[in-house]
Amino acid sequence: MSVATKYARIFSLGISEMLAWRFGYFVMALGSAINLLVLFIFWTAVYQDGNQIGSYSLEQLLIYYAFSITLQILMDYSFVWGVSEALHQGNLSQYLIRPISYINFLFVKEFGVRVATIASFAVPLAGVVIYFHDRLPNSLLAWILFAATTVFGFIVVSLFGILFAMTTVWFQNPHIAGSLFFTTSFLLSGRLVPIDLMPAWLASIARWSPFPFVTGMPLEFVLGNRAGFSIQELLIGLVWFVVLLFSAQRAWKWAVIKYEAGGA
Prior knowledge:
The protein contains twelve helices and no strands. It is mainly alpha-helical and 264 residues long.
């Protein structure tokens, strides 16, 4: 079996597992649609009173938060708890004897899960795209850069998630570290509020972190507020990628040693 075929099957496994959970899949789709509807009602009410949020028009904010929900679904890191459970229950052994990296297996499988999850939000998102089609960029390059930044954001979240999951072999669970990551990411990524609306000191911290790649930066391409990346942004992204990848690989090796030493 070729490497490409192997990973394609792992990817399809992630999609199959998500689709098999039919009722939960329906609830997830309904919840996402309701969340989007609430945001639309809220921001419409705010702007009807004559308020203005920074330089954003009502249409821009609605587009921002609609795509933000989509990225939130894609960047979910709940797989951390599954890895932690496998470590606790001794179910990791099956992956140690397979001729494939567990980190690669986990990443590709989870990407399949995320694709299936995004599909659950396809209908309301399509409604947003159709309704605001004249406000969205018509440049193919903008959408390519949006997709590329989103994929990089997914990699960042996945590497952070793997790091937290590996702490399970030293601590009871990674919930504390995971919750800290979620809170930090929620604030600095631009998911809660666009980065350019943050106080200057907080926006500066955010721009030196990897979190804008998770939400804020991709959405700037959607709104047409960004045409590319600065050298500084590329260097920041590269440094964080190298640090996170190295840390995740080292944490995995140490976790395996401790896992095997424990006789699991």
